[in-house]
Structures
1.
Amino acid sequence: MESLTQWIQGLLADNTIFTLQTLSYYGEGLVTTVQLVFLSLVIGLVLAVPLAIGRGSKHRWIQLPIFFYCYVFRGTPLLVQLYLIYYGVVFIDGIQDTWLWVILEKPFVPALIAFTLNTAAYTTEIFRGAIKSTARGEIEAARAYGMSWWLMMRRIVLPSAFRRALPAYGNEVIFMLHASAIASVVTIMDLTGAARFVYARFYAPFDAFLFVAAIYLCLTFSILYLFRYLEKRLLVHLKPSGQ
Amino acid sequence: MIDLHGYGPRLFEGAMITIQLGVLSLILSVILGLLTASAKMSRSWILHRIGTLYTTIIRGVPDLVLMMLLFFGGQIGINQVTDWLYYQFDIDIFINVNEFVAGVLTIGLIFGAYMGETFRGAFMAVDNGQIEAGRAYGMTNWLMFRRIRFPLMMRHALPGLSNNWMVLLKTTALVSVIGLSDMVRVAAEASKATREPFTFMLIVAAIYLLIASVSEWGFAKLQKRYDVGFGESN
């Protein structure tokens, strides 16, 4: 560890902008970005599955509110949603006296809420499409076996829908990574926040933003390859035979 | 009635800026997208490489980072060029980057990459027989593009184009971060000043939904126009 630090220091000896100090800002920013994106995606996914099932429900009073939720969150900019939640929580009556304020005071939680609601809306639409395109025969087969609705969902519809949703969900993950840059607007020190800090400190836009762009590019490619690998593994049965 | 605390006219101006910004960058991105699609489909490997590099890099980096890079870096870059011109050739010019122009250029540049992918797929979906027929009529390349490839391509490109437009519209909100007074910035200022974030942000959200709904309707009309001859009857 000691020698590694020395090696990095030697590498950065003539560099006035990228010192160990600024690199540690970028490092912390990377951790914040990954946390924010990962948490919102996981919670969003958990919300999206029941919402997607409800979206295809025959009952209008289940279907319509979900449709409305998706329409609003997909039709307005994430920045507006973030502002609404970030500035909005402050004005809930008496919230500053409750224990909730300890968490909500920092911008991380409002940002997480906004991102989660946003990605849940997009993911709901992706899953709904996948569930809708389930082959008729599979459902008929499940019925013929006398499966209950719940068993059919669990064993037949959802597993195949998840696989079909994989390519579109991969895009959503990348979209979310890029959207997380907006967190820097509400003073969160994510990757973009770190870049903005370095830019303001040294007035060096090219160094600050090109470096962070390269990090984002690496992250994007990692996600891309992960999903390509998953697709290869999970969608084998959909490939034309003889390949 | 909703009390806007006198922010109504500024909010309206902001909405106008959002719409202008959106439409102008849409036009720029369509032009760039057509160029990129042609570059990626051309036989020249250099053009192909450039096209691929452009679409890969732009689509791999967040919009906001690109916007800040081009906006904050753009002025310094231009200053360096004009300084160099001054010292080398004694030409004294000063170019000040206008926020609006910078916004249009940046958003256009970003979405040119997405449009490029959309158009490339659409051009490839055009039946080869149609192009051969055009060639058999002795059409020039330009005439063939104008009369055959473009109208036929648009049928396939429209769903992607409309999708890109919706994303572009929402991306225009980001210009408020780099200092342009679009409606999101006006609403953010108003929220802080009046301490009524819900009023202003919900109005802005409603305007975005309105623009999105109107353009959805417009795109449906366009789709009908380009679907002529491909209807269910044949």
2.
Amino acid sequence: MSRLPKAAVRDEALRLRAMFEATGAAPVDPAILQPAATLLDLYGEDIRARAYVTADPLRGEQMLRPDFTVPVVQEHMDGGAEPARYTYSGEVFRKQENDETRPNEYFQVGLELFDGRDPEAADADVFASIAEALQGLPVKPATGDIGITSATLAGLTLSDDRRAALMRHLWRPRRFRALIDQFAGRKPVPTHRKAVLAIMAQGGDPMQGSGIRIGLRSETEIRARLDRLAKDAVQPPLPASEVDLLDQVTGLKDVAPVALERLRDVAVDLPTLSPAVARLERRFEAMAARGIDVDSLPFETSFGRTTLEYYDGFVFGFSAIGRPDLPAVAIGGRYDALTKVLGRGAEIPAVGGIIRAEVALHLREKEGAA
Amino acid sequence: MTLKLGVPSKGRLMEKTFDWFGARGLNLQRTGSDREYAGVVTGIDGVDLVLLSASEIPRELAAGRVHLGVTGSDLVRDTLAAWDDQVKEIDLMGFGHADLVIAVPQVWVDVDCVADLDSAAAAFRACHGFRLRIATKYHRLVREFLKREGVADYQLVDSQGATEGTVKNGTAEAIADITSTGDTLRANHLKVLSDGVIHRSQATLFKSRKADWVGRDRETLSVLMDRLGVLT
């Protein structure tokens, strides 16, 4: 995609923001420079590869905002009243390590809702507002729900430790799969672990003769993990039938009504899934009430599981039809867990999404010319 | 125009590089006093010797200021984004071997592999309130490795030297550093993870994809490659 004039993109961004304002959203305008520590703690090292970090002599490491979500959540937590509805438009900055042709600064227009009264209605609201803003453009929607996978895990024969390990790696499919194989007994126990477990089984102490203790990780922490390993070693394997069930759920990809039906079937064997399926159904109903054609709406359980780490419930995206070379026109989702981390335990139900103004304008101009 | 060949300016890496070219009939030598960074290539026409710090050679190759360069494969991969688009590996030279590895305290008897490190990192973060720190100067290579392996709850802290000491000094919980024999790691009460080798590095002859390869340089290159017995 050739870059469009910045003034035209800014106008498009403001036009889109005005559409969100017309839905009752209050405009906010977070700073471009954000304290790096918060973002690093939240996103981990990956963000360092993607965001520009610079140093301020007094404020320490600063980051050119890689997105708006975190500053908007912080602003809201510092004094916003609920329910709240915000919109913004402005540039975000992302390093491009592998593809020089991808822009490293571009306009995002966003809509964020903090409203715990009816989460599914809020999900549908954000999706429909973005769909309306993109009306007339050759885009196709995608939807998913991370909550379906976590609800499935909740019903599997797993110890709390094992479940927590899987939940932690929901967004890293490769590690997730390795853990499933390990818990299902499909991978041999590593030699080293076998040896440590054997010492403990004979009443010995694996830490004996292990050398001097250095570093912050204490002996108590090491012993606590050894205990967990010993407990884990006597866990029953995850039954093959349950692995199949999990694969069925995570591999599900169909139009909304069919997907819903399939998930209902699975929920018969897996009652923990029922509340999540009920939420999905309510969301589809709320979307239909907003004029979305749910009968043809694609649903994919694992949509967004590799790229959108902080989303933990509903996720969605819009992409240009027949243009896999373009980045997504819009993405969004629910991120209750992120507000929990930022709020030091205080969780605010939150859902939002962004439009890439330049991609939208590019498609609009192509449509106009056609 | 002359073809610019960048080689390490001091130490064993320089000597071995000179030997390697020497064995192939190209005589590289420093000129002037032994403090002056100047050199010549004899045995072939049209090649200029540029003496550089090994750590700067990747950057000079990427900028196209040298046509060919000798440096560690680890340095190229760590310094350059999408390194393969910027330089091409011409030949592995068979010396300067060193492995970039992840090492943890020997006393961590519960940790042997990368998966263990990941699990320990989760518990560490929950206990201490911050991500487990890994000291390194090879940020790109380490970050890409840990991402590929699906490790979470860690952070990299920069360490440009004496990295093996950071754990004892309390500024990191684990390290990622270059080792050839492992002696320094052991002396600092550290052990290498069984699957923690990130990259096996050695001195490598690289060709710049960004340099101007005009007229005579191409001919010089093909003569040179012929002499070195490698195909481009």
